[in-house]
């Protein structure tokens, strides 16, 4: 009888350890960090965003205003890849949160939006208003203060 009562406790402990091991593996060599780095290096303009975030909408609006088409990664709309599911099991339903954790290591913060131009991390609205964004994109500056 004592063995039967310990089994659920052992299973719960094993599940907890599996989750902890998976969360500890999100280091700079994680699949998410690799994805972030590869995405940044593969596109001139990259925005890591959440579709409902007003700040993300503002950042995307800046590029639309400048007739630029960024590569946008909507973190709230990503479904975990099969390869990643094999690695971490069915514990996680999406990898957007894990990508944000990797962002913290790469960009120094995990909040969105995270914007990169030619691999350089920028504050979009501030760079737009100062004219730095136009310089980075190699276009004529039409600064606007209403963003």
UniProtKB/TrEMBL annotation:
Single GO term (MF): glutathione disulfide oxidoreductase activity
Signal peptide stretch: 1-29
Keyword annotations: Signal
Annotated GO biological process: cellular response to oxidative stress
Membrane-spanning segments: none
Domain Glutaredoxin: 45-122
PANTHER family attached to this UniProt entry: GLUTAREDOXIN 2
The name this protein goes by in its record: Glutaredoxin domain-containing protein
């Amino acid at each position: 009888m004592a063995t039967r009562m310990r089994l659920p406790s052992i299973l719960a402990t094993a599940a907890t350890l599996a989750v902890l091991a998976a969360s500890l593996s999100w280091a700079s060599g994680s699949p998410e960090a690799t994805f972030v780095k590869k995405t940044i290096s593969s596109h001139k303009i990259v925005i890591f965003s959440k579709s409902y975030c007003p700040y993300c909408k503002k950042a995307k609006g800046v590029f639309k205003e400048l007739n630029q088409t960024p590569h946008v990664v909507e973190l709230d709309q990503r479904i975990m890849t099969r390869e990643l599911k094999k690695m971490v099991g069915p514990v996680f339903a999406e990898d957007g949160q894990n990508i944000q954790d990797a962002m913290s290591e790469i960009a120094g913060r995990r909040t969105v939006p995270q914007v990169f131009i030619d691999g350089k991390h920028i504050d979009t609205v501030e760079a737009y208003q100062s004219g730095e964004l136009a310089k980075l994109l190699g276009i004529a500056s039409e600064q606007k203060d209403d963003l």
